[in-house]
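User: I'm preparing a small set of examples for a lab meeting where we compare how different chains pack in three dimensions. I only have the primary sequence for this one, and I'd like the structure in token form so I can line it up with the others. Please keep the answer compact; I'll paste it straight into my notes.
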Amino acid sequence: MFHVKKLTALMLAVVMIISLAMSCVTTTYAATAVSGLKTTGRTTKSITVSWTPVNGTVHYEVQAKSTSGHWVHMGYVYTGSSYTMSSLNPGLVHYVRIRRFDGKVWSSWSSTHSTCTLPNQVSGVMMSPLISKAVRWNIGSEHSSYQIQVMKDGATKNYYSSASTASTMTYPLDMNEKGTYTIKVRAYVLCPSGSSSYKVYGSWSNSIKYTV
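Assistant: Understood. Below is the structure token output for the 212-residue chain.
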């Protein structure tokens, strides 16, 4: 009888130890992170990003930064899966990330998405008064590169040039055949994407005509 009581007490002690150990185990819970972040609209002063919606989300948080800046809170999204950042500077690179709150915990941040605002429209396009068959235009402070398009009789030729440090840019063109040429210019910025980059173009300038 004594041995039975002793065995029963020992079993109760083991059960209590197991219960105590189980109560100390914390189950790790992680909210699903946001994916599919991409740019769906841009102007010279705004960028709209969207992402794949996640069921059970209470709200999303959007953060952004410039190339050399720190992450800044932009806003919360309670309805939908897109956000427009406004009052930005033209022709600059911006980085965006999103996280979500599911009512219990925050998810980790999404992968960082790089995007760019449009550069301003090129102004002051005219034929150079000093250099024959060369086009000239004003250089914008945010302009880094340009596309010059020349059209004649349905044919189109494109030239590309980096901006100079001067206030105006002059570029000689191959216009030797007789006829009337239509010329226009637009700026573009190289927007990083992983290990490569892509061109984000501004609006075309007003067209000018030149007759040879």
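A couple of notes for your slides: The radius of gyration is 30 Å. The chain has one helix and 15 strands.

User: Perfect, thanks.
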